[in-house]
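Ticket #4471: structure output looks truncated?

Reporter: J.K.
Steps to reproduce: submitted the chain below (155 residues) through the standard prediction queue, then opened the result file.
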Amino acid sequence: MRAMPKTFVFGLISFFLALLMGCHGSVEYIDEMEMLPVKEELIEFSLGHHVIPIPATLPGDGIEWAHGNSLCLTFDLCAIIDPKHEKYVHSQWEHAEGIFRNDVNEVCRQARLDELTDEPDLITLRGRLTEIATRRLGKDRIRRLVLNGINLQPL
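Returned output as attached by the reporter:
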């Protein structure tokens, strides 16, 4: 049987000593990290519940739908904003809600079928809706849009 080199044995002993003694990291530092304030607080501003009938062009490969040529897209739309912009966004929303809803309907109805059925979280549609929201409610006021409760059903 071969003897182990001294450096290997010394390293092994050092490892076990460090393991037994622990790293002695400052628990207070971790507690302090938990107590730090959040860097920024954001709020959700509701942009309404949307139920949008969408005329759909059937695929050309002979697939027929049992329910006709329309889909119904339903979702709740929220804007993530900084609390200091809430009053401004609220006043813009009161002023432009009808126009905004019309724009949302138009964008959704112009969406391609694959954008509605194949994309996770409706990424392309959300991008187009974000453009509308920033145009109507303030470019630097909207951090992002969130679509909740997305449901797409044949009519």
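Triage note (M.O.): checked the attachment and the full token line is present. The helical segments are 6-21, 27-35, 86-110, 113-117, 123-137.
Status: closed, working as intended.
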